[in-house]
Amino acid sequence: MTSPTLFSPLTIGDLNLPNRTVLAPLTRCRASEGSVPNPMMADYYVQRASAGLMITEGAQIAPEGQGYPATPGIYSDEQVAGWRLVTDAVHRAGGRIFLQLWHVGRVSHPSFQPGGTLPVAPSAIAPEGEVATYEGMKPYVAPRALETDELPGIVALYRKAAQNAKDAGFDGVEVHGANGYLLDQFLRDGTNRRTDAYGGSIENRARLPLEVLEAVLSIWPSRRVGVRLSPSGTINSMSDSDPAAHFGYFVEKLNAYDLAYVHIVEPMEADIRHGGPNIPGGSFRPIYTGTLMLCGEYDGARADAAVQGGAADLVAFGRPFIANPDLPRRLQENAPLNTPDPTTFYGGDEHGYLDYPALEEAPA
Ligand SMILES: Cc1cc2nc3c(=O)[nH]c(=O)nc-3n(C[C@H](O)[C@H](O)[C@H](O)COP(=O)(O)O)c2cc1C
């Protein structure tokens, strides 16, 4: 049997992906008032529907899960109706799309919180730096540590959001366990100093993320649910005393759930520069028995080599897919790539969002 390439199809349960190039989850801060997805967002995803699979930008599961201006939610009827525009348009265009379920935890600010209260987290430890609010940059505040008896309420928010994603017509959901947000804050001992059953050992720190996953799996078939993790990530002031062992434990636990995929963010150049750990995504291959997606600073050649060499089944692209709506075709044809413009990543209008050109159609 010849090994697959980046351009080979992949079947996950009853989901048929025509290629292995995935649109990584990308926050673009262009939702309408009330965190409602809009027709401009539908156009953006339709432009990228040739991806084997698209994962949406993070969608907050509740108002208190928001940490950036104009990010979409998945908790109100208006948001579900807005996402329905997106999923219908993507399906008409022949695409497949999972929603990323997001709660930022401490990476927020009272101005995003209902009633102006403190953001919540496993422990009352502030991230370093500043948060972008509707009133400009503000220092992070120390969050309020969640009480043990509040945690079932967090799990229930994820369950409801998973149901809303189903009602909105998505093909599946990705649980955001990466990049320093709430579930990552529970997993890592730099941010989780709890002394109850949800802190201390890695078994305890994994408890809330696994309860969330099981709640999502009470709504969706397992092959329609992915989990994203960033074992080497330092963004949002993240640290852990032994990330290789702790994430190894967690990923091994995920084998039991027969998921659509596990999605690992690779060590990024900036993480390494900040002295972060260097745990290659492929090192989870011997640990995880299911479909493995890798992401982070891939180009076409490296992605194809990862798939052909067996390190990855799927490769997600972030910035290259922002700038190249027809990325799978460009990679396959080895065509030149447009350069992404970071000044239009977060917020704004159609510029830097809908106006990156696709390749011309080949002459008939
Ligand atoms: C503008 C921007 C927004 C992002 N938003 C999210 C997000 O909502 N959820 C998430 O898990 N990762 C997010 N990421 C991380 C990307 O999914 C990806 O891991 C990262 O960009 C590395 O991949 P790349 O080198 O191909 O861009 C974001 C990255 C960028 C540049």
- Stated plainly, the CATH topology is called TIM Barrel
Distance, first to last CA: 35 Å
What percent of residues are in strands? 15-25%
- If classified by CATH, what would the architecture be? Alpha-Beta Barrel
Which small compounds were modeled alongside the protein? flavin mononucleotide
| Form type | globular
Topology:
Blueprint: E1 10-12, E2 15-17, E3 21-23, H1 39-47, E4 53-60, H2 77-92, E5 97-102, E6 120-121, E7 130-133, E8 136-139, E9 144-145, H3 151-167, E10 172-176, H4 182-187, H5 202-205, H6 207-217, E11 225-229, H7 243-254, E12 261-265, H8 269-273, E13 292-295, H9 300-308, E14 314-317, H10 319-323, H11 327-333
Helix pairs in contact: 1-2, 3-6
The protein binds flavin mononucleotide (FMN).
Region (Disordered): 328-350
Keywords: Oxidoreductase
Cofactor: FMN
What does this structure look like?
By secondary structure, this protein is α/β, with parallel strands linked by helices. The protein is 28% helix and 16% strand. It has a single domain (10-344), classed as TIM Barrel, CATH 3.20.20. It is built from eleven helices and 14 strands. The chain has an eight-stranded parallel beta barrel with strand order 3-4-5-10-11-12-13-14, surrounded by five helices. Helix 1 runs parallel beside helix 2 (77-92) and helix 3 (151-167) packs parallel to helix 6. It is globular and about 60 Å long. The model has no long low-confidence stretch (mean pLDDT 97). The structure holds flavin mononucleotide. Flavin mononucleotide binds at residues 24-27, 57-58, 100, 176, 178-179, 228, 265, 295-298, 317-320, 345. Flavin mononucleotide is lined by residues 24-27, 57-58, 100, 176, 178-179, 228, 265, 295-298, 317-320, 345. Keywords: Oxidoreductase.
